Structures are given as structure tokens and as C-alpha cells.
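Researcher: Here's the sequence for the chain we discussed earlier.
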Amino acid sequence: MGARPDITAWRPHVEGIDEVFHAHFADHTYPMHTHDAWTLLIVDEGMVRYDLDHHEHGSAGSEVTLLPPHIPHNGGAATPEGFRKRVLYLNTTQLGADLAGRAVARPVLRDPLLRHRVHQLHLTLQHRGEELEAQSRLALVSERLAGHLGEEPAAFKVADRRVAYALRDLLDGRFVEGLTLREAAERLHTHHTHLVRAFGREFGIAPHQYVTGRRVDLARRLLLGGMRVPEVAVSAGFYDQPHFSRHFKRVVGTSPGHYARTGREVTSI
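Model: Thanks. This is the structure I predict for it:
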């Protein structure tokens, strides 16, 4: 009897990603099958071997594998120790199904920057409340994948200060309740990847980092005003108290509770 696989799967609240799938298989072999989404795969341990369109391929830790929708493939470990992988199933809003033929010809992408960006996206997707960051990271991943498939990126190549400032205005008005990149792009009549790049060029910070900063600033005022930590987390736009505490400590250097207590100590002197 083989070892029990270690599997985690979930559907994130991020448009464009149908499923996140993390797995460690010691002896499982996939039969031939298809997906209706793009399969974006990175391998963290071992090596995966698979057949795609009657050709054998392999994927190891330094590479990114992109399998197109509706094309049969199988898969299994290429080493006795098995393999550990992380997979994103991207729907065709991210990459058009018409690009499938190009992916069949070259499913293995040797691109360290892309590999790093996919890794960062996975880390972000493990935390609720980080949807704007995940959307920003996904936009850059999809843009680079499209480039590998020979498609011109949809984002404009010219820096646009007006777009950056317009996005900042939108974020300022919605930083508590939140704003998706897709919604911002529709309002500003541009592509969401262009928003991420234009904002970063102009302000030296990503949109999600800007929103987090605004939320932390508001939280500081509310804490010093005497509001309790759980209420502050909600009032400042964080998903829950752990989400709030994690970002507050990273930005301010101490926990929300300790920050609030120092304020009370000073006012009681």
C-alpha cells in the first residue's frame, strides 16, 4: 500500500484562478486526462514526467510548466522519492484558449523571474485578505506567460502618470472596503496590468502595498482613540484580526495591542 498523499486544494477569491492545488506524491501516477483551464505548475521537490500530445516532457524545480486546456496529458514521479508540486489552474480570462497550440509545442519554460513570480503568488494566495496583492501578482504572471506564447501584452508600454494618479484617487476612496484591479481598470478604461506597472513606476510601490499603508495609518488613529483591536481590524478594512496584526506589526514594528497600550500609558502620566 502506497504512502498517503499530502494534498491541499482551495478556490481563492481571485478572479482568473479556478483552483490552487498543492500536493506531495510518493507513488501516484495520473492517467491521461484533460482540464478546461490552463495548468501552471512548479515543482519544489523531485521531478515530474508527463506525456503531452504524444511527446514526453519533464519538469524540475527551476522550471515552470504550462499545460494548455483540453489537451490530454498524464503525469508521475521521475524519481523514487516522488515529487512535491504547486499548481494554479488559470481560466481563459488570463490566457486565451487560442494560444493552446503554442503551449503544446513548448510547455516547459526556463524563466527564473517567472518561476519566482509564481512562487510569490502562491505565498500570497495562502492568506485571506490579500486579494489585491494576488491580483497584482497574477497580472504580472499572466503577462509574462503571454509573452512566452508569442502574444503581445495587452498592457500599454508607455508610462502614464495620469493613470497612476487616477488609480491612487480610486484607492484613497475605497481603501477600507477594497477595490479589485479589474474594477479599477474598467473605471479607468485601461488594462489591469498597465495599472500595476504605471502605479509602481510613479510611486515606487505596488497598489496593494499602498492600500495596506492607508489601512495601517487609519488603524493607528483608531487604536490611539481608544477603539479595541478586534473592532479596529474590521473598521480599517482588514479581513480578520490575524490579518490585521500581521500587517500592523510588519509596518509599525510592534503588535496593535502593544501600540495601543503605549498610548494609554502616555496619556495617564
